[in-house]
């Protein structure tokens, strides 16, 4: 799905991810989950006269298994450099100490790792909140903790465009924070949503768990959600 001319959404059954197009390279935001995400990306790129061979970087939004499961396959089949948030290092390794309701997330992740014989990916570069990545012209890391410790969005100031990742969801038009068992801190995720709405996002928003919609539609959903959470 084309979110904008230079941002494609690669849609899956449970989670979506994104390809950011530049003239001489492509950056993936996350690597896909179930099925064969490499073939899926190849099909989508082919429709835009681009190819998997142009992928130079894969940027990880956070450490949950639905965003990291396929990274090692990408590493083995391409020369892409993989970047990930330093604060989610132990989560990516599968060593995060889940507590309370969040243990359900840990149980689901453990089952998935065992079922697919998950091997933690080799990360080429760890990044930090506020860092400018040198990709897609001016992409920078915006910390949105609460979903995980290191969960982040990626913002392009020149495009006024936000890749919100798992900050919120709007399946079936029901907009809200991620389900509580997937979040390590409910208060923080709500604060992160309000913080995101304070950015200049006039260019639009995209996210990972969502209905098919335009960048403007997702932006409007985020603004409405943040207004509701401020009350």
Short summary:
By secondary structure, this protein is an alpha/beta fold.
In words, what does this structure look like?
The chain has 231 residues and is α/β, with parallel strands linked by helices. It has a single domain (2-230), classed as Metallo-beta-lactamase, Chain A. The protein contains seven helices and eleven strands. It has helices at residues 37-46, 65-68, 71-77, 89-92, 103-115, 186-197, 215-230; strands at 2-4, 7-10, 17-21, 26-29, 55-59, 81-85, 125-127, 140-143, 152-156, 161-163, 204-206. The chain has a seven-stranded mixed β-sheet, with helices on one face. A hairpin with a 2-residue loop joins strand 1 and strand 2. Helix 6 (186-197) packs across helix 7. The radius of gyration is 16 Å and the shape is globular. The mean pLDDT is 94.
Task: Provide the descriptors you would attach to this structure in a database record.
19% strand; 231 residues; 4-stranded mixed beta sheet; 7 helices; 7-stranded mixed beta sheet; alpha/beta; Metallo-beta-lactamase, Chain A; 11 strands
The CATH fourth-level homologous superfamily? Ribonuclease Z/Hydroxyacylglutathione hydrolase-like
> How is the largest sheet built, in terms of strand order?
1-2-3-4-5-6-7
> Helix count, per DSSP?
7
Strand content: 15-25%
What's the number of domains?
A: 1
CATH architecture level-2 label: 4-Layer Sandwich
Quaternary organization: single chain
Average pLDDT for all residues: 94
| Radius of gyration, whole Å | 16 Å
- Helix fraction, binned, reads 25-40%
Q: Please write the CATH class name.
A: Alpha Beta
CATH topology: Metallo-beta-lactamase, Chain A
Distance between the termini: 34 Å
**Coarse structural class:** alpha/beta
User: Count the strands?
Assistant: 11
- Describe the global form: globular
Largest sheet: 7 strands, mixed
Catalogue the unreliable spans.
Answer: none
Element-level helix/strand string: EEEEHEHHEHHEEEEHEH
